[in-house]
Amino acid sequence: MNNELDKGSDGIITTLNVIGGKWKPLILYILLYDGTKRFGELKRSLPGISQGMLTNQLRELEKDCLVERKVYKEIPPRVEYSLTKHATTLTTVLVDMCDWGFKHADFLNEPKS
User: Where does the HTH hxlR-type domain lie (predicted)?
Assistant: First the structure.
């Protein structure tokens, strides 16, 4: 491989390590367009995700500085999740993924000759 291809591969690998998988892009997209959410609100927005998986994904996104977790000291405890300023740099990536998904679905549904 040449150096430019190696650099591109490294960038893609890093991106996939941070936002790859079934749930992380969806969590980021929801927080991007709906804003701050509580855990239960996120869980309801992601049919099929288990509580443990959502907890894990949010922890990883927080560790990677993409999601901010804010705990309110009240009873009952309230925790909210929002995107960090750094995470908003993914807007174009997430929108492009969404657009491509619709185009790909249309392509797959086109009659094949």
Answer: 9-109
